[in-house]
Design goal:
Blueprint: H1 5-22, E1 28-35, E2 44-52, E3 56-62, H2 64-74, H3 80-108, E4 113-115, E5 119-122, E6 135-142, E7 145-153
Antiparallel strand pairs: 1-6, 2-3, 2-4, 2-5, 3-7, 6-7
Helix pairs in contact: 1-3, 2-3
């Protein structure tokens, strides 16, 4: 399996920047593993396609509890019902910021890459299919919960 740190670190760094600057939370790197697909382990998946100097997918995933906690932090005045209706849009904004930061990091390193608009999926409701390909899985931790980052880029 050949997944270079140059492909992975910009996505991890971008998430760390957004959590620190927008959510006032540090992300702590945890366990790293290898999977045969970028399929998420949690109920919420943020799917990002990558093309350019290299191609593949990045999938951030979290459980509903983490998604709700993040939503409450960003929009504290929402009712429980509003959080249930709006959390995908709120996570979409976080994902857009993260993607933008990753693009800037790649550009600063002189790498030509295009990243698709993040797609937020509820994996228990929508069937999301992923091709089998070597995937590096990294766990990130914050007070909101665990976020799994699956990177399948070559």
């Amino acid at each position: 399996m050949q997944i270079k740190a140059d492909f992975i670190n910009p996505f991890l760094e971008a998430a760390t920047i957004v959590f620190r600057d927008v959510l006032q939370q540090d992300l702590i790197r945890g366990k790293i593993g290898i999977k045969d697909s970028p399929a998420p382990s949690h109920e919420i998946a943020i799917v990002i396609g990558v093309v350019g100097s290299f191609s593949g997918e990045v999938v951030y995933s979290m459980n509903y509890d983490a998604a709700y906690k993040i939503s409450r932090k960003l929009v504290p005045g929402l009712s429980d019902e509003d959080v249930k209706n709006e959390y995908k849009d709120i996570l979409g904004e976080i994902a857009n910021m993260t993607t933008g930061n990753a693009m800037n990091i790649f550009t600063s390193a002189g790498q030509s890459v295009e990243i698709t608009t993040p797609n937020i999926q509820e994996t228990q409701i929508t069937s999301v299919r992923f091709n089998k390909k070597p995937t590096l899985s990294i766990n990130l931790y914050s007070k909101f919960g665990r976020i799994e980052v699956n990177v399948a880029i070559a």
